[in-house]
Write a structure and sequence with these properties.
alpha/beta; Arginase, Chain A; Herpes Virus-1; 3 domains; eight-stranded parallel beta sheet; 23 strands; about 35% helix; globular
Amino acid sequence: MSEPSPSARRSTGDVKKTPPSSVVTRNGARKAKIQTRAMSAGAKPSALVIAAKKKAQQKRKQPVETILRDHYQIAMESKAKVRGPTGFVTEPRMAEHKCLWDDKYPECPERLISIINRCEELGLIDQCVKFEPRAATLEELLPLHSKEVYDMLETTHQNNDLEYLEKLSSKYDAIYISPSTHELALIAAGSTIDMVDRIVSGEIQNGVAFVRPPGHHAMRAEPCGYCFYNNVALAAKHAIEKRGLERILIVDWDVHHGQATQQMFYDDPRVVYFSIHRYEHGAFWPNLRQADFHYTGSGRGEGYTFNVPLNKTGMTDADYLAIWQQLLLPMMMEYQPELVLVSAGFDAALGCPEGEMQVTPACYGALTQLLAAGARVCAVLEGGYCVPALREAAAHTLRALLRPPPAPPAPAPAPAPSDEIRETILNCIYAHRNHWQCYNFQPTYSIHSPKTDGEERHVVEVRWVGDETRPDTFPTRDCYPVQDDKTKRNILEKLDHLKSVTDLSVAKHPVCFVYDLAMLKHKNICEPGHPECPERIMRIYEMFREFGLLERLHQIEARPASDKEILAVHTQKHLDRLKELSSTKLRVLNTQKKAYDSVYFHPDSLESASVAAGCVLQMIDAVVSKTAGSGVCVIRPPGHHADQDTPSGFCLINNVAVAAKYAVNNLGLKRVLILDWDVHHGNGTQRITYEDDQILYMSIHRYDHGKFFPNSKDADFTAVGKGRGEGFNVNVPWNEKGMGDTEYLTAFTQVVLPIAYEYSPELVLVSAGFDACVGDPLGQCKVTPECYGIMTNLLKGLAAGRIILCLEGGYNTRSISYAMTMCTKALLGDPIHRHYDPKPICRPSAIESINNVIKTHKKYWKSLKFQVALPLENVLEAPAPSRGLNISSYESLETKMACLKLNTQKCSDGMHCGTDDEDSPSSSKVNEKNVASGQNETAGSSSVNKEKSCDEKKEPTTLVDFLSENMQAIVDGEMFAVVPLQWCPHLDSLYALPGDVKFEQGVKCVNCDHSEENWVCLHCYITACGRHVHGHMQQHYRDTQHALALSLLDLSVWCSACDAYVDNPLLYDAKNNAHRNKFGEDMPWCYKNDTIHMQ
């Protein structure tokens, strides 16, 4: 249609028109935009513009989902998740694979034979579930290996022509082929795939595949480095393609870089490849650039490859533990792998002629235990060529997976991490800090600014002295390092000494616990709703029974601590004052408490407190004597605020301090670690141990710049100890509420574990307060119960697993019950799972606190030497090409398709993509209505604004409105969703409501005048106030065992016996009664079934 002339458009000019409004409405803007597009329809739009619009449209159409999570859900679901068996697979026939033309070749049958013999000697294999080996199929090989390699190796099967075999082997780097090599390589690959499949399916919890030939050098198109098929890579690929895993971590601790594994997953974010290897700036085999720290992956996989190059020989346990603490564990906590595969080469072990490192065999057990702290693990044999060291290291690895505590990795005091490992770790952090949230603890500097006084700067540089030239043929004889007889004797003497001082004995009972009814006597009679109440330990004991833990734990007998044991910590005056309580009247006791900070007294308080302290002493005796491997003390009253002469903060006797002094003075221990994770600083414990270097006190607590209880500057990071104890007091103070799993696990990896492993304690006592747990009314933090289990797991590598958990605070009985249960399950070896958070971010104030601790304590602890400034600018050039590695900004088609997410909603014409509301059905209907009615938005704006202002004053009337109004509080953890039980056994005791019963608002509590936050007993219909008022409804439950009560405030039902909310059709009549009296109408029926049956 032709455009009308100007005169035609003005033909109605004599008609009086309303002046156009100066207000531009959204609908008007949309119409104008469409008109403008129509006028320029003749011009073909840019393809890039159309693509950008489509992408914006699809992004806007993606629904925003807010998931309300029950913070106890994982803990509840863990009830059925108990420790599973460890799988074991090998094949004795693998001894047939050997070099037929060189008897001294290091990759020899004795490697595997010695491992099997040592594991059998220690009784480890009998504790495993043994599986038959099987060969990999061609279908399983082809995703990562070419058909040509398979065909070439197939020609060697049962081929006894040694000249042909050696000539063929010379075409490949460090390879020999025997007549049975191909068959055994297929069995090694298939057995590894099978073991991983069993782990992922849940048939077993973890496993080992002691197989050869090894695999991590086997590339797609050629064998390499003793390897033919890449066992670990094939198993990872199987887990991804056949089992649907999305996050796999491969830890390659073989001293040679596993270049083939890296190449196979270099652009795949579903696999993190983490390699620690001897490199020497490219001078060490396999002499490839791609083994350096700045090769971090490409395409979607950028940041998912970690290379930790070791640029000198002689690296020790301290160097490897530093890699774990500074690099691997932080990333692992963020990535949360569904499976950990270990390329378990032991050629970094002391004595290996190829690695020339000094890692002790026991250290491998500690490294394995840390990997198993929160994930399923499969260890697969790779290299290792000093047979005495190899067999010990492999046995320690298997033993750690069987879950007895690993032996200490090194004698105390531990050596410092080397300067070379510091350089490597800082380089790796620099290369990865833009890809991971966990590497935020080093300060930065600009390369253009001058260095300030006292500033320590790290210079990031890449050095390459290698040569990637591939020769046409490779040597097949005498192509390996050889040690002389004297060197071998010295190595054997060192290994024999380590073996003799390594205690591999196992305690009679893996985990013991102690609990006694005498500790229930201490209670606040004048304040029945006091948070430090007997129900705290009663609920834990009941949770243990519910989870079936009582049958799995060995209970030891409680006893009271003697006066002498108490007086080792407290003064005679303090003890005498407590003894007077039993003869003091309640009225006087209630008056006496005012002289102290947050304490109440009962005539039986000393009995309960002395039994609590005695329980811990009993547990120490059991653990040190190896009756118990570890222990759980369900005790109260708590103790860590109690000073030498003053009770404080609900604490009368300092249980843990009494126990630590007992361990030092009576049992002769020289190094005791106290870790206090109660949300309140253990000021009493700190004062008692402040000048003692035989007790290391570490506390993670809320501080709020001194405004949080106990409101003392002694809780800040500057309090480091005094005299002999200087440096042996470590405070990690949080300066805001809301700290959660990320912050606590970060404190562990950055502070707790480095110092604790360097200290090498003989005993670990945990002041296990759970008032930082989610839902606690005092702590107001967000630590989940399962996080406490993870933290317990991380401690198990210390002191040969001699860990004793002692209950301190925690005042949400449900939270502390789940938290202590998860800790106990961790000690028992049960799998501990966490909620997956794709973007865990540590709070800036937590990073500041942790950095302050590191700055303060790095002069005392050599393991804290990594806080060095890194360049702010990008000082690295793009990685250079490296043989065999495809470095591309575009990932492979296979990876791209696997990670592709299709959005079926499309913008069909490339034009209707520009307005914010055109895809909203509700907004389009409103616009259509306004246009149809001819509504003048300017004229009607006042009435609209009045309506809007009235609406803003209205309270939310629906659940959706309420959640929308309070969404930020939910995100901040100030509110959280709880999923009520659909059934509890106490519902059977309810009867139909009598007709004259009315649940009315405003009825006073039967014991006080409170009338707002009241509850109705659904058994006898009395009204009483809640726990946060005076706790009279709880007291009513204790007196009558009437478990179910209805809140008149929000119509929820609480079962005091089950310690949980309950929602069931049987409760409808009661809820509806209250709903009628509150709102004047019936409550909607919201249950699936239509009938209920009451007694």
